[in-house]
Amino acid sequence: MQKNFWDQRYGEKAYAYGEKPNAFFKEQLLKLSPGRILLPAEGEGRNAIFAARHGWEVVAFDQSYAGREKALRLADKFGVTIEYLVGEFQTLSFARESFDAIGLIYAHFSAEAKSEYHGVLSSYLQPGGLIILEAFSKSHLQYSSQNPAAGGPRNIDMLYSEEELRADFANYEMLQLKEEVIKLEEGLYHNGESAVMRMLAKKKHAF
Ligand SMILES: C[S@@+](CC[C@H](N)C(=O)[O-])C[C@H]1O[C@@H](n2cnc3c(N)ncnc32)[C@H](O)[C@@H]1O
């Protein structure tokens, strides 16, 4: 999707995916001791602000300036501080192995870009670090075509499968990796039955 699309969506008054964190992200994060977390493609900051409220040092980024503005407003509302960079996967970079966790929540890209970004992101995570991922799976098309309010890309290449995730994160221990059909109630644009991939993966130590 175009940058303008996201700036326009985030230019609305209401939070596109709500102010509350994604449920799977919340559930997993609450089991961990706080550390340093990276949230790529973080939009209006609902997950970033939740992590900061629970003691995490948060670095978030997104290509959308309007997203950053809303995220910083949400941070103010809850009296927390986050670092939020505006930029794209292609142009930003972070120090190797400098994060304890990465949250990838509804970050959808073209098939080629997806694998490349996963590789780059992985280099930022320290061994033993965790990736928490929730994104629409390929079978979501049957739900979004019947109910557009469920949201998600219409291009099947941008959706996720278990095989792709296993291949992209081959040097990870899969603590959880499954496709689930859930009922999303996230703000204005994720509403209704949806097929998603949920992954909790731990980066293996190199021997
Ligand atoms: C569906 S939204 C998810 C936002 C947030 N993670 C959440 O769950 O609320 C997808 C986000 O990906 C961002 N995005 C898409 N392509 C990107 C890229 N190449 N680099 C950085 N952000 C990107 C968009 O700007 C948008 O904010």
Describe the structure.
The structure is a single chain. Helix content is 31%, strand content 30%. It has 7 helices and 7 strands; from the N terminus they run ααβαβαββαβααββ. The termini are far apart. β4, α5 and β5 form a beta-alpha-beta unit. The chain has a single domain, classed as Rossmann fold (3-Layer(aba) Sandwich), CATH 3.40.50.150. It is globular, with a radius of gyration of 16 Å. α3 runs parallel beside α4. The model has no long low-confidence stretch (mean pLDDT 96). The protein has 207 residues and is of the alpha/beta class. A 7-stranded mixed sheet has the order 3-2-1-4-5-7-6, sandwiched between helices. The protein binds S-adenosylmethionine. S-adenosylmethionine binds next to loops. The site of S-adenosylmethionine has 16 residues, from loops.
What tags apply to this protein structure?
207 residues, alpha/beta, Rossmann fold, 7-stranded mixed β-sheet, 7 helices, 7 strands, 31% helix, globular, binds S-adenosylmethionine
Beta-strand proportion: 25-35%
Largest sheet: 7 strands, mixed
How many DSSP E strands? 7
- Ions, cofactors and other bound molecules: S-adenosylmethionine
> What level of helicity do the residues show?
25-40%
CATH homologous superfamily name? Vaccinia Virus protein VP39
Radius of gyration, rounded? 16 Å
* Global structural class: alpha/beta
The whole-number mean of residue pLDDT values reads 96
SSE order, as H and E?
HHEHEHEEHEHHEE
Unreliable runs: none
**Silhouette:** globular
| CATH topology grouping | Rossmann fold
The first-to-last residue Cα distance is 40 Å
CATH class wording: Alpha Beta
CATH architecture: 3-Layer(aba) Sandwich
Integer tally of domains: 1
Strand order of the main beta sheet, please? 3-2-1-4-5-7-6
